[in-house]
Specification:
By secondary structure, this protein is of the alpha/beta class. The chain has a single domain, classed as 3-Layer(aba) Sandwich (Rossmann fold), CATH 3.40.50.150. Helices cover about 45% and strands about 15% of the residues. The protein has 13 helices and 7 strands. It has helices at about 35-40, 45-50, 55-60, 80-95, 115-120, 135-140, 180-190, 210-215, 220-235, 240-250, 265-280, 280-285, 290-310; strands at about 105, 125-130, 150-155, 165-170, 195-205, 255-260, 315-320. α5 links the parallel β1 (about 105) and β2 (about 125-130). α1 (about 35-40) crosses α7 (about 180-190) and α11 (about 265-280) runs antiparallel to α13 (about 290-310). It is globular, with a radius of gyration of 19 Å. It starts with about 35 loop residues before the first helix and ends with a strand.
């Protein structure tokens, strides 16, 4: 929340309105054409690679063996991190109503854990998109045993234009910009068949009304942490409230049939990652530097506090045609 206007993980240099803009408009600008977006928008390769191309070996130090870099789902609460990541993936894929032989698109596939589970556990064919060169290279290596049933592309959703049966996107929407939401949801709606579904898993921020209702305080320390995240961790990142995301999805023709908050599950995930990274401190410093190690420890422990306090949440949106 950048200052008292309620912004959170929102690049001041490229930020849109802090309240929900009408679908197709950004801060009172002319209607944004999804058709124009399909042909003219370019993915944010540089911003995404600034984070995810750091070092595959570095991320492996604190992630679980599947290298799933998103909120885990600790249900039941005694699950290990690896088990909780599998539970989260199954939670997401279960909402997609997958059927054997269908084609699944994973927007922001990371190192491939979700599409591996989809192919092995649900019998689908899958294509995963990532903007990270290092992620794509390692994902292809890790998924090579699945052959033609799975494909990883160094490609953004803006560049993808093939029909699919289902879409899943976990932890990528935070890197999009509100001025692209209209184009994103329109593209996804168009790629899906009449019975298509999309599961969108994203961090969200509270609206100004929710901030007031919850009595959340926004301190100078919060402002500084927000600036730190945008500069050192997720340049170009942007979060929006649940109502805003839902508004854009419905404007594209989707029915949002469920909004499932995972809340403190992400706090537990971040705390587990921080513990793992701290235990591997010497190796982390050798792979990167003392500065990067300290930066990531600050990021992981700091974000965990905000998910526990209610300043941040993570939500799964089930979007049906």
């Amino acid at each position: 929340m950048s200052g008292c206007n309620g912004r959170w993980f929102d690049d001041p240099g490229r930020a849109g309105s802090t309240r929900a803009s009408p679908p197709g408009r950004v801060d009172g600008s002319p209607p944004f054409s999804a058709e124009v977006a399909v042909t003219q928008l370019k993915p944010f390769y540089q911003q995404v690679q600034a984070h995810y191309d750091l070092s595959n070996d570095f991320f492996a130090l604190f992630l679980d063996p599947s290298m799933t870099y998103s909120c885990a789902y600790f249900d039941p609460p005694d699950l290990t991190l690896e088990q909780a990541q599998r539970a989260k993936i199954d939670l997401a894929l279960g909402k997609c109503d997958l059927k054997p032989g269908q084609r699944l698109l994973d927007i922001g596939c990371g190192w491939g854990s979700t599409i591996r589970r989809a192919v092995e556990g649900y019998g689908v064919r899958a294509v995963g998109l990532t903007l990270s060169e290092r992620q794509a290279a390692l994902a292809r290596e890790r998924l090579a045993d699945l052959g033609h049933r799975i494909e990883v592309r160094l490609q953004g959703w803006e560049e993808f234009d093939e029909p699919v049966d289902r879409i899943v996107s976990i932890g990528a929407f935070e890197h999009f910009r509100e001025e692209r939401y209209t184009a994103f949801f329109a593209k996804c709606h168009r790629l899906l068949p009449a019975d298509g579904r999309m599961l969108l898993h994203s961090i969200v921020k509270p609206s100004l009304e929710e901030i007031n209702a919850k009595g959340l305080e926004i301190t100078h320390e919060d402002v500084l942490f927000n600036k730190f995240i945008l500069k050192a961790i997720f340049p170009g990142g942007q979060l929006r409230p649940v109502a805003t995301v839902r508004q854009y999805a419905e404007a594209a023709g989707f029915r949002v049939t469920r909004v499932h908050p995972l809340s403190t599950n992400y706090a537990r995930t971040l705390e587990a990652w921080a513990t793992n990274l701290q235990s591997a401190r010497d190796r982390a410093v050798a792979l990167t530097s003392e500065e990067i190690y300290e930066t990531y420890m600050r990021y992981l422990t700091g974000c965990a506090r905000y998910f526990r306090s209610g300043h941040l949440d993570v939500v799964q949106f089930t979007c049906c045609k």
